[in-house]
Amino acid sequence: MTYWDAVLLGILQGLTEFLPVSSSGHLVLTQAILGVKEPGVSFELLVHLGTLLAVLVYFRQRIFQLVISIFRNDMKTERRILGYLIIGTIPAGLAGLLLNDLFEEAFSSPMFTSAMLIATGFILLSTRFVKQLNKAVRLPSAIVMGIGQAIAILPGISRSGSTIASGLLLGVKPEEAAEFSFLLAIPAILGAVVLKSNELLALDSSLVPQYLLGTILAFVFGLLAVIILMRIIRQGRFAVFAYYCFAAGAFGLYLFW
What we know:
The chain is mainly alpha-helical and 257 residues long. It has one domain (3-35, 60-256). 74% of the residues lie in helices and 0% in strands. The protein is built from twelve helices and no strands. Helix 3 crosses helix 11 (208-234). The two termini are 29 Å apart. The mean pLDDT is 90.
């Protein structure tokens, strides 16, 4: 892996992990179009840790509240949200464990990925036609958002896009839907890292500088992506990303048809 590869993939992972445009889809298309080599499992794990750290930093106060709610009886709302996060994580966990081989095969197809990017565009666009009800996250919405996260294991389907859109379609307040989506990403990313953590033992020591660079860039641009998306959510412009997904998907289909 070159330094250029590390820079490109680190920035790409950081921005697209949380913006609703599919990090996996961009990775597939970038490798196919620019000829960037598969970065390897160790690098993927480390840049995922970089983006995970970005969420932990941005939502540090909220996470602290959720954790201490376990030990305090006067924080029933936070404890309930913590329970919803656990339940919402189950669908993606089952999908990853039971259908991992199928998803890995799908990752190798730029055509399939491009089609799923267009599907993501329609998912995002659908939120423009829903009346904002400003509901809180409840058990049904947590389950549906969890299913949205499970579906997003497919390359080209955005995790943040499908989870936030699911919440908005059920009338959840936009900021709460976005927050729940980001918090839902923590066990999902951490679980993926833990499942393949043994790969870090095979890390090539000669590539440590490149890996470190990619991880730092994934953290910095991941944090930037969270800030940008939360601002756009507050402005009610979440669906604007649909047009980018349509363009990226159509471009991919044009190249690989």
